[in-house]
Amino acid sequence: MDTNLSINEDLSLGKKFFKFLAPSVVAMWVFSLYTMVDGIFVSKGAGELALASVNISMPFINFIFAISILFSTGASTIIAIYLGKKDIKSANETFSLNMATIIILSILIAIFTLLNIDKLATFLGATDSTMSMVKEYLGIIIIFNGFFIVSYSLEVIVKTDGFPVLATVGVLISAISNVILDYFFVIEFGWGVKGAAVATGISQVFSTIFFLSHFFRSKSTLKLSKFKFNFNTIKRILFIGFPDCTTELSGGIIIMLFNQNLLRFIGEDALISYSVICYVNTLVLMTMIGITQGMQPLASYYYGREELDNVKKLFKMGIVSVIVASVLIFAICMFFTPNIVSLFISPNQVELFKKSMDVFRIFSVSFLFMGYNVLISGFFASIEKPVYSTIISLARGLVIMVVSLVATILIFGGNGIWMSSTISEFICIFISIIILKKNLSLFTN
């Protein structure tokens, strides 16, 4: 039986790659941009302190997406390999088992976090001036957490099913509805951070319904089916998805560490500057993840077919894409710094605005190096070599980042915080290269 991934075999590998790359990157951009719009509406409608409160809550949102990535990356890789082997039954069973597991898990997360919301807000770093807004925002996001997890997981699997453009449409539905609801809830109704959270939650409900409906269409290869709970399959999913999960989860941990150290060494205004950086950093990271996700389904598919030459070519295409994206993003950040910062902070706040521009430019150097580590880690996950992927993800997202953060603070004081990400990403590239050389047989003809 042919699958949607095997259709159009007459297309060149480059065209297939672009067919998956463009929708994946666009989907990630849309997600990042409507997250930024959330911040813009909050800062304009409720003030800069509300923006800082949302930023303090971000590690929990990172945690939710990390859970989704954990399961979606693992499940989509296994599904793509089964599709490459034309084992549709096993692909459907894996898809259905994954869905049931993440629904149950999201319910458990909601119960546990709602019962401990005060402790959660304190743990995330809420101050006396932000505590009420942080709790207000978190309380609503927690209620909708299942839709966040299921929506993103379905988006990834829709691409694995061979419909990357449809995945982008689903993200657009979520983004457009979020922007419209943000305008009414935050600006018109004056609901502040609560309005932003409700808008985001409802938009995830819309995308979940849209993605879920795809799997009931005749064109879908994947279908929800009966399955038996298989611990070995769950373990396999978790093992493959762990590296990408680590990337997202580490991002949340780092935001929390940055917030705590910025408060300690610089002050509360630094949280506002960092909020701007976080939104742009998310956009850049999602661009690199989009490039990686454009490569992953095809790499897993050809790996399942044992066509290693195509797997190598896809990796090289991914590297070229990262080079182009990194240079363009860095140039944009350097030349348009005032325009970017003014989206969140009024130029009338002269001192805060100038300081935010200065630290934004310092931090932006890290965008030149980020993509290589994300792509290489994702590539190893796509060919079921999660140990290498995990090493890179943990090094990049947590271990080296924490060491760099401590070292730069000791050497440069509080201002060293803004340099730590660049140093971490740069060092991690050498680790990625060493791992690639140890697996040289995959990259030589």
TrEMBL record:
Localization in the cell: Cell membrane
Transmembrane segments annotated in the record for this chain: 20-41, 61-83, 95-117, 137-158, 165-185, 197-216, 237-259, 271-293, 314-340, 360-381, 393-412, 418-436
GO-annotated molecular function: antiporter activity; xenobiotic transmembrane transporter activity
Primary subcellular site in the record, as a coarse category: membrane
Keywords recorded for this protein, A-Z: Antibiotic resistance, Cell membrane, Membrane, Transmembrane, Transmembrane helix, Transport
Domain of life, per lineage: Bacteria
GO cellular component, one term: plasma membrane
Protein's membrane topology: Multi-pass membrane protein
Pfam families in UniProt: MatE (PF01554)
One of the GO BP terms on file: response to antibiotic
Matches recorded under InterPro entries: MATE_fam, MATE_MepA-like, MATE_MepA_subfamily, MdtK-like
Family: Belongs to the multi antimicrobial extrusion (MATE) (TC 2.A.66.1) family. MepA subfamily.
PANTHER family the UniProt entry points to: MULTIDRUG EXPORT PROTEIN MEPA, SPORULATION PROTEIN YKVU
Name the record gives this protein: Multidrug export protein MepA
Protein's organism: Romboutsia weinsteinii
Lineage, opening ranks: Bacteria, Bacillati, Bacillota, Clostridia, Peptostreptococcales
